[in-house]
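F.,

This is the one I mentioned.
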């Protein structure tokens, strides 16, 4: 199958808010999984000797199938970019290139190396070798076409917060699970029950594959296809939501019915500029803020329900 890569080059500084808003445009077009390149990103372990050069610009790339909807999708994307210029003074340019599905699935792998996310957790792509030291827990990930390799600051923040707040035996829900990496982390740290939900059916399949790759027992987890928590009937001790700020705000309207008494919510995917907006909505919903953790222009916000709001 042929695909068209729509590469949006950001010409605005600082780029963090521009990247989030452009990512949201792709999400509105039904492409929740995008590739974000950041020229300032530096892996904690450094780049491998055979790694590709660092990108020159901030870019956001989405992949449109080359079909009868292609022209419409491109026009809608360009209209959205024009609106960002008029309404937000966010300037960008888009270039298109054709790729084969096999090329798409393989070419980005040169950028992905083992990454130590916490003192004990290491995420490793399946095609790389890594020898763990004593006490390290290795997460095997093959993200395929789904978002979530562990190297993005928002995912790394979530991993750190899960390690800090998850207790063995807890139940765990991951909203917008992508590759399933956060579910795998929770499983490795002792969660007894795991559920992931995503609005991308491909991501759901990849999340299941990564759970099996990490030998998580089939009776411990479930991956659901759906939008946010509308079809979730269980309640959970710990919930993570590594999604766009605008989506976090919508999620908060329905989060209370899936959070167990005394439960904790981890919100990530939030740029610094939207930090207070999310905190205000969490507090209005009944959450006390436990922690706000920044990283490279992004923040993770951790809250728990005030006693009067517990179910």
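My design for it:
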């Amino acid at each position: 199958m042929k695909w068209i890569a729509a590469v949006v080059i950001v010409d605005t500084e600082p780029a963090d808010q521009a990247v989030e808003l452009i990512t949201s445009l792709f999400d509105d077009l039904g492409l929740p999984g995008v590739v974000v390149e950041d020229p300032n990103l530096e892996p904690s372990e450094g780049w491998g000797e055979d790694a590709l050069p660092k990108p020159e610009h901030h870019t956001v790339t989405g992949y449109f199938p080359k079909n009868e909807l292609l022209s419409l999708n491109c026009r809608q994307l360009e209209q959205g970019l024009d609106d960002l210029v008029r309404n937000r003074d966010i300037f960008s340019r888009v270039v298109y290139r054709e790729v084969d599905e096999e090329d798409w699935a393989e070419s980005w792998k040169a950028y992905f190396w083992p990454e130590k996310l916490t003192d004990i957790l290491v995420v490793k792509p399946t095609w790389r070798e890594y020898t763990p030291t004593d006490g390290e827990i290795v997460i095997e990930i093959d993200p395929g076409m789904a978002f979530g390799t562990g190297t993005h600051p928002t995912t790394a923040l979530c991993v750190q917060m899960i390690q800090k707040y998850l207790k063995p035996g807890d139940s765990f829900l991951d909203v917008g699970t992508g590759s399933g990496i956060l579910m795998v982390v929770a499983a490795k740290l002792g969660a007894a029950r795991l559920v992931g939900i995503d609005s991308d059916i491909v991501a759901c399949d990849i999340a299941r594959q990564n759970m099996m790759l990490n030998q998580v027992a089939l009776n411990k987890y479930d991956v659901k296809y759906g939008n946010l928590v509308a079809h979730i009937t269980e309640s959970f001790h710990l919930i993570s939501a590594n999604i766009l700020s605008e989506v976090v705000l919508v999620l908060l309207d329905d989060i209370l019915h899936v959070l167990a008494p005394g439960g904790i919510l981890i919100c990530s995917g939030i740029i610094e500029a939207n930090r207070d907006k999310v905190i205000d909505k969490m507090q209005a919903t009944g959450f006390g803020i436990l922690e706000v953790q920044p990283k490279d222009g992004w923040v993770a916000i951790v809250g728990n329900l005030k006693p009067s709001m517990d179910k």
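Residues 85 and 91 are 5 Å apart (CA to CA).

Talk soon.
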